[in-house]
Each structure stands twice: as C-alpha cells, then as structure tokens.
Automatic annotation (TrEMBL):
PANTHER family: TRYPTOPHAN SYNTHASE, TRYPTOPHAN SYNTHASE-RELATED. This is Tryptophan synthase beta chain. SUPFAM superfamilies: Tryptophan synthase beta subunit-like PLP-dependent enzymes (SSF53686). It comes from the Bacteria. The lineage of its organism: Bacteria, Pseudomonadati, Pseudomonadota, Gammaproteobacteria, Oceanospirillales. It comes from Neptunomonas concharum. Pathway: Amino-acid biosynthesis; L-tryptophan biosynthesis; L-tryptophan from chorismate: step 5/5.
Length: 409
C-alpha cells in the first residue's frame, strides 16, 4: 500500500471535509499504535485470552474421501469467541478507540456477526455502542440483533434504499460526521477510507499467519490452494495476505446468488456490471449501471451482498495474485449439507460459499494435494434462513406452536 492509502488504482479517502481532521487523527494514532510493542502485545493477549486464539486447522478426512480429490482442511474461525473471524478486528480497533480516548463506538453490520462482535468488545472495554443495520438484514439475522441488545448496544434499523449493508454504511457515515469528537467508527470489513482497508486486513492477518505455522506442522508443506468467501473481503484478506510471496494459489468465492441477472447476485468480478467507481469513502470495483448508480444485489447470506469489495482484493485480482470465482445459492446449500453431515460442523452461509468453491475444485486435484478453506463463521445465526431454504416443515410447525403458546400466555 502507498502512504496515501491506495492499492494500485483502488482505495484512497473520498470523505466529506468535516471528517478530514478525524480521518487524519485516526491515521496518525493507528501508525503510532502499530509501532508500539505494548499495544501489539495487548492486542495479542486479548486475542488469546478473550477470543480463544489460535483457532485450529481441522482435517476433513471423511469429506476428502467422499469428494475423492485433494485433502481438505478447514481454518476454524467459527471457533472464535462470538463464532466468527470478526472478533480479530474488533479487538484491535476497540483497543485503538480506547487509546484515542473515545467513549462511544458506532458500527454497521450485514450478517450481524460484526455487530455482535462490536457489542461484545464495547461491553468488555466499557464503551457505548450503536449499531446500524439494514431492516431487511434484521429480518434475516434477528438472533444476532437479539444478542446485540442483550449486550447493551443500541441497534438502529435502516429502511432507506434496499435496507441492507450499503444503506447501513451510509447512515453510519452520517453519524460519524456529526459525532467524531467522542465517537470511533469501527468498520468491520476491509473497505472504506484509509486506513480502514489496511487496518482491518492487518488485524485479520493473524488467520493466515496461523495457517502457515499449522500447515507446516500438520502436513509438512504450505497449502496448494486456499479458499475464502468474499463479501467486503475481511476474512479473505486475513488469510490471503501472509501468503502473497508463496506459491499457494489464493481463491476468492463470491455470491453467485440466483444467477447472472442484475439484482440476482453480488459478484464484483467476472461480470460486466462491475467496474471502477468511487462511493462510500473509497474507490474500488462496484456493481453499477451505465449512469454509475450502484445496483441492487442478492445473496442467500446477508454478509456477502455488499455492492463493492475491498480495494486490496480488487488490486490483487487485477495483478493476478488472487483468482475470483463464485458459488450460487443452490451450490451453497449443497455444500452446507455436505460439510454438516460428513464432518459434524455447521458452517455460516457466508463460509459455505468458500466450502462450495473448495469442494468443486478439490475433486479435480490429487489426494497428495492440500487445500485450506477458511471457515469464517458458524451457522447458528443462519438457522431461520437454512430452515427456509430447506423447506423444513417440522421446524415451521415448531415455530407456529411456540408463537401460539406465547400469545396465549
């Protein structure tokens, strides 16, 4: 990255003038913190003692045998405190907010995992917490909303636009513009103005560093390929970045949704609607129409339907260092069931995209090759979406009975 926050042609800071001093203060404090060994030690200690790192690298022997190709390993970010990789970043930024003397954090969330992680770290550090979330995403991920509220956070539904992550991000930016004196904007993915892409990918790179050590210990070499789902891109950046100088092929898996029609997917690569643009404080590849207006998106997972992508990944893809593929909603549900029934692991729908991409290509490889799939989160939060996708009638009957009993109490 250049000092001005660009990754090739992507990145930068396209923010209102009112936020310039706040952004410059954040950049200065982040640089200072990363040069402070005491701060780094504090972050590492919290990751170990509060979140439970290192997370394991799990060999999927039964699934590997069933697929009949490469040996399949999962990096178990689902075993972090809060059930997702999001905790790595919020620990780092939460401690940075305290170091800067802020008393309040704001966040925006799609799948809700970043919202829960932000609420958790705010409670632990004694900070006020406000989370913006699209009303549509609230419907899809209400269990996470419930936990945010129990942790003391204020959850504000966003009803503008498509009522998803893009719209929640706009509202969080408006809040930050009016409250930056005492408020820290805790962005959960490697997007936004500088230094957020660098900062988030830096705190998340603990994932890839652990994989390097674990792979050499468990199968004696670096992985042949690594797969990660790509929404904004935080978990992908986290596992990819430490491997950029190695021979391991890095593969991002986007949300292919219902198909290639506009509004049916969230692919920012390999589709004619994705092109360079500037929005929401930075430049990257956005899904746009011919007039440059951002297009609607769809994914079965609330965490993968962002209209843009990390400028880091956009640059790496341009330079051929990351290959981007996609998985449809149908492929995702098949991969979810294969992993659950063969290995006893319930993946998040976001992570199931990486599983789908990995299983598809593992079948073409030889048994002496090794792939690692980043399991970015666990699927508890997706219970209602998965039950709906599987048309599980007994579950629907249970819900109706439960609600009837509650109304008659």
């Amino acid at each position: 990255m250049r000092d001005d926050g660009y990754f090739g042609q992507y990145g930068g800071s396209y923010i209102p003038e009112i936020l310039f001093n706040s952004q410059q203060q954040l950049l200065k404090e982040y640089r200072s913190a990363m040069a402070d060994s005491a701060f780094i030690e504090q972050v590492q200690q919290e990751m170990q003692e509060y979140s439970g790192r290192p997370t394991p690298l799990t060999h999927c022997a039964r699934l590997s045998a069933q697929i009949g190709g490469a040996q399949i390993y999962l990096k178990r970010e689902d075993l972090n405190h809060s059930g997702a990789h999001k905790m790595n970043n919020v620990i780092g930024q939460g401690l940075l907010a305290k170091r800067m003397g802020k008393t309040r954090i704001i966040a925006e969330t799609g799948a809700g995992q970043h919202g829960v992680a932000s609420a958790l770290v705010a409670a632990r550090l004694g900070l006020e917490c406000t989370v913006y979330m699209g009303a549509h995403d609230i419907e899809r991920q209400y269990p996470n909303v419930f936990w945010m509220k129990q942790l003391g956070a204020t959850v504000i539904p966003v009803t503008t636009g498509a009522a998803t992550l893009k719209d929640a991000l706009d509202e969080a930016m408006r809040d930050w513009s009016a409250s930056y004196d005492d408020t820290y904007y805790l962005i959960g993915t490697s997007c936004g103005c500088a230094p957020y892409p660098e900062m988030v990918s830096g705190f998340q790179s603990v994932i890839g560093h652990e994989v390097k050590t674990q792979a050499l210990k468990q199968f004696g070499q670096l992985p042949d390929k690594i797969y990660a789902c790509v929404g904004g891109g935080s978990n992908a950046c986290g596992i990819f970045m430490p491997f950029l100088e190695d021979s391991t092929e890095l593969v991002g898996v986007e949300a292919g949704g219902r198909g290639p029609q506009v509004g049916d997917h969230a692919c920012r690569f390999n589709t004619p609607q994705a092109r360079f643009g500037i929005a929401q404080g930075f430049s990257t590849r956005f899904l746009q129409d011919d007039q440059g207006q951002l297009l609607p998106t769809h994914s079965i997972s609330a965490g993968l339907d962002y209209v843009g992508v990390s400028p880091i990944l956009a640059d790496l893809a341009d330079r051929g260092e990351v290959r981007m593929i996609s998985a449809t909603d149908e492929e995702v549900m098949t991969a979810f069931s294969q992993l659950a029934k063969n290995e006893g692991i319930i993946p998040a729908l976001e992570s199931s995209h990486a599983v789908a991409g990995g299983l598809r290509e593992a079948a073409t490889l030889s048994p002496d090759q090794h792939i690692v799939i980043n399991l970015s989160g666990r699927g508890d939060k997706d219970l209602f979406n998965i039950a709906r996708a599987l048309n599980d009638q007994p579950f629907n009957t249970f819900l109706r009975t439960y609600l009837d009993e509650e109304e008659n109490r």
